[in-house]
Design goal:
The chain is of the alpha+beta class. About 15% of the residues lie in helices and about 45% in strands. It has helices at about 1-15, 25-35, 185-190; strands at about 35-40, 45, 55-60, 70-75, 80-90, 100-110, 120-130, 155-170, 170-180, 200-210. It has an 8-stranded antiparallel beta barrel with strand order 3-4-5-6-7-8-9-10. Strands 1-2 form a two-stranded antiparallel sheet. The two termini are about 30 Å apart.
Length: about 210
């Protein structure tokens, strides 16, 4: 319910024109791309941040990154969208008895050059997730049998899904769904008969704001 409330609040703020004197997307884009000047002794250095300013922002619920995650990314050539996200999970957000912070580099590839029917884009990709909590480890502790457990510090997370695009003035807003899994789950599916294909996938829902 908390995730639904957060998503609905975000949508209301985004589409309620009465809450803003000007277009909030336009203001955000101006802040990200405006030139900044720094005075160093007698010299003035002008910084033009156009090359590194994000072209999209994402908010995601679930999906192998955390209970909720936020991040920023880019739209590059051939439908490639790299995005850096921060995910969070704890007792209040997700019902976990441990607090988990996740840094994820999501590498998404659009499977169609143009949106199907003008509004739907299928995609697939793989994320690199780095989990930060007190019980994650990159190497097995000595008291574990070798090769018995899979390291849980860094994971590869394949995913696939689709996004519905909604035009907003000169920009667009996307609502997407995706199914994701982890390399450890894939390994268990391959080497055991107890894990089924539909057991290893989790559903995530998200929103993308394109600038």
């Amino acid at each position: 319910m908390k995730a639904v409330q957060i998503i609905l609040t975000f949508i209301i703020l985004l589409f309620s024109q009465n809450l803003f004197a000007d277009d909030p997307i336009k203001i955000l884009k101006q802040k990200l791309t405006e030139e900044k000047q720094i005075v160093l002794k007698d010299d003035t250095v002008t910084i033009k941040p156009y090359w590194f300013a994000p072209t999209q922002f994402k908010f995601q619920y679930a999906g192998s990154i955390g209970f909720v995650s936020i991040g920023a990314g880019y739209q590059l050539r051939h439908g490639y969208q790299p995005t850096l996200l921060y995910g969070f999970l704890d007792n209040n957000f997700g019902g976990s008895n441990v607090t988990v912070h996740t840094i994820s580099l999501k590498n998404r590839f659009n499977l169609s050059e143009k949106p199907i029917l003008g509004f739907f884009t299928p995609f697939a990709g793989i994320s690199v997730n780095w989990g930060i909590t007190h019980n994650t480890f990159k190497r097995l502790p000595p008291h574990y049998r070798e090769n018995y457990y899979f390291q849980n510090k860094v994971h590869l997370s394949p995913f696939w899904g689709g996004e519905f695009q909604i035009p907003i003035a000169q920009n667009s807003f996307g609502i997407y769904f995706e199914f994701s899994t982890l390399d450890a789950y894939l390994l268990e599916f391959i080497r055991t008969d107890f894990v089924r294909w539909n057991d290893i996938w989790s559903l995530g829902l998200g929103m993308t704001l394109y600038l």
